[in-house]
Every structure is written in structure tokens, then in C-alpha cells.
């Protein structure tokens, strides 16, 4: 390989949103390794993250890591960047001129996420209000520092899209609990398919009745092939803190619906030789069209259930109905079908951990 000419910058954005503390250990280890310290002088790594304890501790004790806190960036510099961002996002809209752009930039108080939400709110995406009226609603939100203004914006967005009458609000809680509790983000179609296996028939509805109004704060709403998840970690923090979100609070203390749905899917869809392989004497690597076979026969909702049913179970209080479903899976030939599916997914090594979780849950 020839030498790299010129400067090289590798950007790792929002490391804090990449997964759990355990899943970050490997990349943090690599970033603070002696090999990383010996990279050529024309090679730099730019990492952004909130100062979570594990990230702060590891990077803060590494000599070759230079840390800059956004709190130390002059407010004038942040406002200038936000003004450029707002101009690009909504400067073309009728009734939005330099005065309105300046007002949003100043009110953001250096907080980019608030500016992004304000632009999403002002855009003409809802019937009944003009751009000017939506702009006025944004700039008259009660001012405050940090989370105060951000929370007010989140509440305003939710109030504009989610009625507070019992049925819509209950569905909002249920759908957002599902979105926030999945172990890895899933697209809307997969979430809806899993919901069809929820224990209560009242919860078996198309989740688009809630999610289609939440494009300002969630990904995967416009492009249905994209996984649904909060666009910014602050929205997750807001929803899971009752003191901040109030009636929109999402309780993640129990994963019963997810456990039930995952086990129901395993009971109903696992089968012998699920990918229709001609012979069991070939290794997975020797099956030329294995990827196509998996895509056709192990659909995303089944793949997810195979991988994470035990993790959801671990987060759920013991329940006899769930215990019966567990027995239906691990106490029958379906157990072998599950192991086969895990092997085809390249995850058979995780099966032991799943069984350990299950055994502890049963005790």
C-alpha cells in the first residue's frame, strides 16, 4: 500500500450514543493504546461525546489525548455557527428573514440541538398554522439555561403532535417504551410486526399512528428503512426523567411486552433447517448464497428475537405466562432450531449468555 499523502482526519461523532458502557470499552482501549499514540503526524482522530464517566476517565488519563470542553468555547463563536445553520435550514421560508434567524440563534444560547429542534418546529409540516405563527410559538417559549429551554421545546413539539386525551397518550407511552427499550434500533416495519405479538390486543396497532408525528425528534420516520431512535440523546434523557417530561414520561423499569413478543415469535416462527440448506455437512462459510437465504427466511423481527429474548427476560419480573413460553422454547425441539438460527446469524457464541440469563431469571 502506498503512503498516504496529506492530512487525514478520522471523525468519531457522538461516542456516548454508540451503545452501552461495555460496548465502548474496546474502542476506548484502542484510542488510548500506544499504537494510537504512534500514528503519523499527519493523522488525527476527532472524537465528540458527552462527558460520561467511563469516557471521561479513560480519555482523561491518556497523555496523547487533547480534551476541549464546549463550555470553554466562546458563546459568540457558537452563535455564529448556529446562525449559519439556521440560515441554511429555514432561511428560504417565507416570513423568515435575518431578524428571525438572529432571534433563534440568540435564544439557542449556544445549544445546537435546540436550534435544530426550533428549525424542525418552524417548518410548515402541520396543518393549521403559518410559518410565522410557528416561529412566534418557538421564540416565546420560556427562556432558560441548558435543559430548561430544551425541555420546553420538546414539550412544545409533543403537545403539537400528541393529543393528551387518554387513548393517544397511552399509545404514545406504549410506542415510545418499545422504541426506547429495544436492544438495537429497529425500523418501523419491524417494530410494528413485533407489536402484533404483544400480550394485550389493545396494543396491537400500527405504530405509525404515533410515530408519523415525531419526525422532529426521531429518525426512521420519513425513511421507513432507517431504524427508529432518538435523533439526539437528550430526548432519551428527557423522556426517562419524570421531573422533566411530566405526562410524557416513559417508564423503562419492566420489559414484559418485549419479552412476551420475542418469545411468541420464537415459538411461532422457528423451524428445522430454517434456511433450507441442502446438506448439514457444509459449514456456513461454504454456503455460497447464505446471505440471501438468511434475508429471505430469518426476517428482522425473528433475528432480533433470537438475539435478545433473554436480555429482555432478564429485565422483566418473573411471570408464569412468560415462564411457560420459555419452557416452550428451551424445553422442546425449538431449542435446537434456535441454536441453528443463532449459528446462521453468526451469534452462536452468545447462546450461553442467553441461557445463563434465563437460568438466573427462573431461580
TrEMBL record:
Q: What is this protein called?
A: NACHT domain-containing protein
Q: Which organism is it from?
A: Pisolithus tinctorius Marx 270
Amino acid at each position: 500500500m502506498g503512503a498516504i499523502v496529506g492530512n487525514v482526519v478520522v471523525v468519531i461523532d457522538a461516542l456516548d450514543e454508540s451503545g452501552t458502557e461495555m460496548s465502548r470499552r474496546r474502542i476506548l482501549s484502542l484510542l488510548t493504546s500506544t499504537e494510537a499514540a504512534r500514528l503519523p503526524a499527519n493523522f488525527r482522530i476527532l472524537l465528540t461525546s458527552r462527558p460520561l464517566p467511563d469516557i471521561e476517565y479513560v480519555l482523561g488519563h491518556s497523555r496523547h489525548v487533547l480534551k476541549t470542553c464546549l463550555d470553554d468555547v466562546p458563546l459568540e463563536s457558537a452563535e455564529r455557527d448556529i446562525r449559519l445553520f439556521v440560515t441554511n435550514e429555514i432561511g428560504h421560508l417565507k416570513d423568515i428573514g435575518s431578524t428571525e434567524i438572529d432571534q433563534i440563534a440568540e435564544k439557542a444560547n449556544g445549544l445546537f440541538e435546540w436550534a435544530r429542534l426550533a428549525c424542525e418546529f418552524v417548518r410548515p409540516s402541520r396543518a393549521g398554522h403559518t410559518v410565522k405563527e410557528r416561529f412566534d410559538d418557538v421564540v416565546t417559549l420560556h427562556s432558560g439555561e441548558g435543559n430548561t429551554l430544551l425541555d420546553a421545546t420538546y414539550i412544545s413539539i409533543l403537545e403539537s403532535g400528541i393529543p393528551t386525551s387518554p387513548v393517544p397518550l397511552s399509545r404514545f407511552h406504549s410506542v415510545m417504551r418499545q422504541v426506547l427499550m429495544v436492544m438495537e434500533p429497529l425500523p418501523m416495519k419491524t417494530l410494528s410486526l413485533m407489536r402484533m405479538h404483544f400480550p394485550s390486543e389493545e396494543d396491537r396497532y400500527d405504530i405509525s399512528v404515533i410515530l408519523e408525528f415525531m419526525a422532529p425528534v426521531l429518525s426512521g420516520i420519513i425513511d421507513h428503512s432507517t431504524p427508529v431512535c432518538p435523533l439526539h440523546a437528550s430526548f432519551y434523557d428527557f423522556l426517562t426523567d419524570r421531573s422533566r417530561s411530566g405526562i410524557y414520561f416513559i417508564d423503562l423499569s419492566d420489559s414484559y411486552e418485549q419479552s412476551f413478543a420475542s418469545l411468541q415469535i420464537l415459538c411461532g416462527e422457528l423451524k428445522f433447517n430454517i434456511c433450507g440448506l441442502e446438506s448439514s455437512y457444509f459449514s456456513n462459510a461454504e454456503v455460497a448464497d447464505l446471505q440471501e437465504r438468511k434475508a429471505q427466511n430469518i426476517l428482522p423481527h425473528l433475528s432480533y428475537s433470537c438475539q435478545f429474548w433473554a436480555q429482555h427476560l432478564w429485565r422483566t419480573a418473573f411471570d408464569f405466562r412468560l415462564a411457560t413460553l420459555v419452557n416452550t422454547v428451551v424445553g422442546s425441539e425449538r431449542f435446537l432450531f434456535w441454536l441453528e438460527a443463532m449459528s446462521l446469524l453468526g451469534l452462536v457464541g452468545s447462546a450461553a449468555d442467553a441461557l445463563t440469563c434465563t437460568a438466573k431469571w427462573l431461580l
